[in-house]
């Protein structure tokens, strides 16, 4: 069952909201908007056309669905009473809809089922060669384990710092994202200090990164690597000048020789939007464009194209900070070769870093809708089964879903995050949610999901004082692509999860709207607010 209403975790906050961007800017065709859910609760349309949806849908919910903005969209909805099994609402319940990030419900629960909530990920360092008088006459090898944070978000109490708007979505929602204060290099520094404590003062050979836990995968333009440092992002924080036309100031993290920064962003009129582009050439990140006058510092990120090379440079710099000299150049490509995996498996690490339990990773993935972390999950399932491919991992995930009663007619999965190709019927989603309530990991899964009006991607979808605040644990989903007659197409907006209704009834619900032509990003935020309003109506009606 859904527990009593929660309050946000200590230390979880959100920075000042500067301005919503005038348009959604991404280079790829389809955008998975991970954190868009909490952007605004104030954009509620007052114009309602006569209801045209199925009679099973209560009038107050039908009025939301039948707004002119959704004239060309397709709605699906299922609501069931978990205890009795009674179907309360069924709108196109057996039609498949694009999941968006509600697919993370499927990937996270499958990982909890197979791996367990308490599993941890240990990132070892292997010394290959003899150590004589503090000199390693050979190579150091950092082995990627699938640890999503490598210490970079771990707070003093051992939990992960999870903001409302994460830097992972900084480029999609400029002005909203925040940086967690934890050191993104914490794990690498800990490993380097262990190596120094083991008596190694210098490395005559190479420093290598072993990222062979699974075969290379790129999804939505992002390499899905088993080695992750700072989400494999360079964070660039831009602050406007004092007057229009003034240059901006820029700081970035982590500071590393891997990249330098050329900041060409200027200060624009306060009414303008954010217009920032980052390009890379020969290790130089050139940042161009404008940010509004009087805006709060704005985070933009650069996606590292080669996580292993990135981690190698950062690890070598960590070794230097720990007093371990390395003969190899951290700015040049590695010249060494990795030994066979089987050989490394049999060697005792000279250092190792262990993650918090997977329950914390699950919470990060679901609260902020972390796409990289979600896409690691089927690959971790593959590795757990002794396989190496995304296809093998998805097969493992499908096995979990089929054991819960789902079939290929109900659901299609192509990745962990919810890109186009992932589909599910509303009835299948609620049936699966009901099934999960009896799983041993249910409490962990529930804790991982955003709370309506409280945190994560649902933090700000309801106005202050709404009676439904805190009543639901649910996952948002958003896909935005190029339109035909309009600039954009809201391919899906979705919300699925659990709700404790005012009557005390425990509900599983799933609501989707697909194929909505839109002109600007505010329409996406409005759609998320509308789905939050639907959840509020469910609370009050049942």
CA-based shape: globular
- How many domain regions? 2
CATH architecture of the largest domain: 3-Layer(aba) Sandwich
Q: What is the average per-residue confidence, as pLDDT, rounded to a whole number?
A: 90
Strand content: 25-35%
Classification by helices and strands: alpha+beta
In words, what does this structure look like?
This protein has helices spanning 59-65, 103-115, 186-197, 307-321, 341-345, 358-368, 371-384, 390-403, 426-436, 442-448, 521-541; strands at residues 31-32, 74-81, 87-91, 97-98, 122-132, 135-143, 202-203, 207-210, 218-219, 222-223, 233-239, 249-253, 260-268, 275-281, 284-292, 298-303, 325-326, 351-354, 411-412, 423-424, 472-482, 488-500, 506-518. The chain is an alpha+beta fold. The protein folds into two domains: 31-116 and 359-541, 3-Layer(aba) Sandwich (Beta-lactamase); 122-355, D-Ala-D-Ala carboxypeptidase C, peptidase S13 (D-tyrosyl-trna(Tyr) Deacylase, Chain: A). The longest helix is centred in the C-terminal third of the chain and has 21 residues, at 521-541. It starts with 30 loop residues before the first strand and ends with a helix. The model is unreliable at 1-31 and 35-55 (pLDDT under 50).
């Amino acid at each position: 069952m859904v527990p009593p209403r929660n309050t946000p975790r200590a230390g979880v906050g959100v920075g000042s909201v500067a301005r919503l961007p005038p348009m959604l800017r991404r280079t790829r065709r389809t955008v998975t908007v991970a954190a868009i859910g909490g952007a605004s609760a104030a954009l509620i349309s007052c114009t309602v056309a006569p209801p045209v949806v199925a009679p099973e849908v209560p009038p107050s919910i039908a009025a939301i669905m039948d707004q002119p903005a959704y004239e060309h969209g397709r709605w699906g909805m299922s609501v069931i009473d978990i205890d009795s099994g009674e179907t309360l609402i069924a709108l196109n319940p057996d039609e498949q809809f694009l999941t968006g990030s509600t697919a993370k419900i499927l990937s996270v629960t499958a990982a909890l089922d197979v791996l367990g909530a308490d599993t941890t990920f240990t990132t070892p360092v292997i010394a290959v060669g003899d150590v004589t008088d503090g000199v390693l006459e050979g190579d150091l090898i950092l082995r990627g384990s699938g640890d999503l944070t490598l210490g970079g978000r771990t707070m003093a109490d051992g939990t992960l710092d999870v903001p409302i708007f994460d830097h992972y979505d900084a480029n999609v929602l400029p002005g909203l994202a925040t940086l967690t204060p934890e050191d993104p290099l914490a794990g690498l520094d800990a490993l380097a200090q262990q190596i120094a404590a083991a008596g190694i003062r210098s490395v005559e050979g190479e420093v290598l990164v072993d990222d062979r836990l699974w075969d290379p995968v790129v999804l939505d333009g992002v390499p899905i690597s088993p080695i992750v440092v700072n989400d494999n992002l360079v964070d660039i924080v831009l602050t406007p000048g004092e007057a229009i036309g003034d240059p901006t100031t820029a700081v970035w993290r982590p500071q590393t020789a891997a990249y330098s920064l050329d900041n060409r962003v200027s200060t624009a009129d306060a009414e303008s939007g954010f217009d920032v582009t980052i390009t890379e050439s020969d290790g130089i990140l050139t940042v161009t464009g404008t940010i509004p006058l009087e805006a709060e510092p704005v985070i933009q990120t650069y996606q590292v194209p080669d996580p292993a090379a990135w981690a190698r440079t950062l690890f070598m710099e960590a070794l230097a900070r720990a007093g371990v000299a390395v003969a190899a150049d951290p700015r040049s490509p590695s010249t060494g070769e990795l030994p066979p995996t089987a050989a490394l498996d049999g060697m005792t690490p000279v250092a190792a870093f262990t993650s918090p339990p997977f329950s914390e990773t699950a919470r990060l993935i679901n609260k902020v809708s972390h796409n990289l972390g979600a896409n690691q999950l089927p690959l971790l399932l593959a590795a757990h089964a002794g396989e190496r491919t995304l296809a093998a991992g998805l097969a493992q995930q499908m096995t979990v879903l089929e054991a819960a009663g789902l079939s290929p007619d109900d659901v299609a999965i192509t990745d962990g995050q919810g890109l186009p190709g992932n589909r599910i019927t509303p009835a299948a989603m609620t049936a699966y949610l009901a099934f999960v309530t009896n799983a041993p990991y249910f409490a962990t899964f529930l804790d991982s999901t955003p709370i309506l009006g409280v945190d994560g991607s649902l933090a700000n979808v309801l106005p202050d004082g709404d009676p439904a605040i805190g009543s639901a644990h649910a996952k948002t989903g958003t896909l935005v692509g190029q339109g035909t007659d309009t600039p954009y197409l809201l391919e899906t907006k979705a919300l699925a999860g659990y709700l404790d209704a005012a009557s005390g009834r425990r509900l599983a619900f799933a609501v989707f709207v697909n194929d909505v032509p839109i002109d600007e990003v505010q329409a996406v935020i409005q759609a998320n607010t509308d789905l939050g309003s639907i959840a509020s109506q469910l609370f009050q009606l049942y």
